[in-house]
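Reopening closed ticket. The problem is back. First fold of the pair:
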Amino acid sequence: MRAQSKPFIVEVKSSRRQERRQSASIWGNLDLAAVAEEIAEELPQPATTPEETAGAQ
C-alpha cells in the first residue's frame, strides 16, 4: 500500500513588481516643448537693428 503524504497548502503571494500606475507628475502627458513653441510663436518678435543683421553675416 502507498504511503500517505501530508496535506500541504500552496500560498500565492503578490509579485514584487509593482503595477505600472499613472505618473505622479502634475504635468501628466503634457508636451512642454510643444507648449513652449506655441508660446514663442505668439510672442511679438523684437525688431532687429541694422547693426545686428550686419553682425550676423
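Second fold of the pair, where the issue appears:
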Amino acid sequence: MSTRLTPSEDFPQDLTALGLSEVEVLNSKIHRELDYEYTHDGELSMETEVRHEELTEELERRDQQPESEPVQPDVAARRLS
C-alpha cells in the first residue's frame, strides 16, 4: 500500500459519498504526494493541486456542517442518564 496518491492513480469523483476517515486518508496521501513532487520534481502536478483543493473544500464543508450521522440509541440513553 502506498502512502502517496500519484496523479495517475484513481481519485473519487464524489468526495461527499465517502466517510470522513476516507476523506482524511486521501487528504494525507495528497499531502505526501505534494511534498514528494516539490522535493523531487521541484514543481507540483496540476492534477495533485486540483485534488488537494477539492479535498480542502470538502473538509471545510464538513467542518461547517452539523454532524449528519445518527447518534446510536445506547449512546443517547447513556447521555440522558
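Update: turned out to be a display glitch only; the data is intact. Residues 5 and 11 are 8 Å apart (CA to CA). Helices lie at 20-41, 46-64, 73-80. Please close again.
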